[in-house]
Design goal:
CATH topology of the largest domain: Glutaredoxin
Number of helices: 6
Largest sheet: 7 strands, mixed
Structural class: alpha+beta
CATH architecture of the largest domain: 3-Layer(aba) Sandwich
Number of strands: 14
CATH superfamily of the largest domain: Glutaredoxin
Helix content: 25-40%
Low-confidence stretches: 2-10, 12-67
CATH class of the largest domain: Alpha Beta
Shape: elongated
Amino acid sequence: MTRIRTFAVLGLLSALLVNSCAAASEGRADDGRTPAAGPQLKILMAQTDSAEMPKVVRVPEIRVQAGVQERPTMPLIGEKAPAFEATTTQGPMKFPQDYRGKWVILFSHPADFTPVCTTEFMTFATMLPKFEALNCKLIGLSIDSNYSHIAWLRRIREAIEFNGMKHVNVTFPVIADLKMDVAKKFGMVQPAEDDTHAVRAVFIIDPEAKVRAILYYPLSNGRNVHEILRLLIALQTTDKHNVATPANWQPGDEVIVPPPGSCGTAEQRMTRPDKDVRAVDWFFSLKKMPKDKLDLPPEEE
């Protein structure tokens, strides 16, 4: 009987501990009040196996603080891009003041002097004239110093050859973000992937400093810069012509006409469509969009 009483008391002790820790993790005491420093279990009685009088067992004070994991924050599509000031390889930068009226592609890379990043920067730099022809500026970023950026870009120009590209001069600015100030504003540091390097993020920002598209790539895989250019052209086509672009759209392909907003216009779309509209169904219509109606870089025309 004594052993049974002992087990019962130990079971009660365990239950008290679990319940008290749970209350602390929820930031409250059992009576609903917020505890100052967690619960304090002071004195518990336990019966021993012998016939001795009950002994006083002191349980150490338990202080539980619920850990809160910081999650990356980032601007969402349609929101204003965060403002920032930074040091870059092309001098001080104030964003968005320095880029008013311009499209911007802000992209991060994990680190200088790494092979995948080197191929990306060579490709971005080689295609820079195409982006600039679309009124778009490129801005790079990594959690490295400005001196590291400069040394790496010099090494690319002097010694690296890739896919027929060599002596590539990177002239767009690269942000030195050692304190992760800019990277954290844009959610470029994702701890589950790497808590000291930025992932391969891409933000396409319009002339009103509004985020229009977001792309994320892991550390191990380089970006398709041609796809980023295609997406920029698609966004500008949407803005200029009030259309959408279908899957795998390329400049010169048909575009999607916005669906009708009433029963009457839906009926008209099917029975008397515009001469340049191909109505597949009342909600799904296409029309031709020749290249000469688009704003394209010279080699894309």
